Amino acid sequence: MTRVLVLTSSILGGNSQQLADHFSGLAVERDGVEITRRDLVADELPHLGLAELSSWQVAADERSDEQRELAARSDALIEELQAHDVVVLGVPLYNLGIPSQLKAWFDRVMRAGVTFRYTENGPQGLLEGKRAVILAARGGQYAGTELDSQTPHLKGMLGLMGIGEVNTVFAEGLAMGEAQRDGAMAEARQAIAGLVERL
Ligand SMILES: Cc1cc2nc3c(=O)[nH]c(=O)nc-3n(C[C@H](O)[C@H](O)[C@H](O)COP(=O)(O)O)c2cc1C
């Protein structure tokens, strides 16, 4: 059984959502594949604040009621991530970065001592045997240029937790005319079909 966690984060329910839907639609047809979907916009997480961060640092049996409630949010998201083999991220480019809704998810699952730890040789990922797929939708064209700080950021966060195998599908120039948009989306759908074959 291959368990796939599909995370979407488009405030427009837009192109990255369509790509994630395409991935899910093809993947669900495959034997032995199970999909979980989490829409980080519909089910929005608040910004990470001090009270929640501090709740992680208190031993589980010593937490106050409030701390228990706050820590449960991150615990549940980490459990969900741990229970899947592949994480698919539908990612819009907003102001050259990731949506804050997706950042709020990373802020909950990147937990020192749980999904990674610091060693004398630097950070070490604690998630094992997982891979990721990034479905990146952008109005302009940035892949491979210095302005694409989004892709390294995502790979850096995934890598820190031990998810080093990452495939990226770009749909770019989506605001650069209908022909460019249609072509980029068609190419991205084709690339997705190839990735789903390899699930
Ligand atoms: C708030 C906001 C900020 C955006 N910033 C950028 C940007 O910095 N660069 C870019 O190429 N496109 C930008 N866009 C266009 C989106 O990348 C494009 O609409 C893409 O399709 C977003 O994915 P989505 O349709 O899944 O939401 C922005 C769109 C919005 C709504």
Automatic annotation (TrEMBL):
It catalyses: N,N-dimethyl-1,4-phenylenediamine + anthranilate + 2 NAD(+) = 2-(4-dimethylaminophenyl)diazenylbenzoate + 2 NADH + 2 H(+); 2 a quinone + NADH + H(+) = 2 a 1,4-benzosemiquinone + NAD(+). Residues 3-193 form the Flavodoxin-like fold domain. FMN binds at residue 10. Binds 1 FMN per subunit. GO terms for molecular function: electron transfer activity; FMN binding; oxidoreductase activity, acting on NAD(P)H as acceptor; oxidoreductase activity, acting on NAD(P)H, quinone or similar compound as acceptor. Quinone reductase that provides resistance to thiol-specific stress caused by electrophilic quinones. Belongs to the azoreductase type 1 family. This is FMN dependent NADH:quinone oxidoreductase.
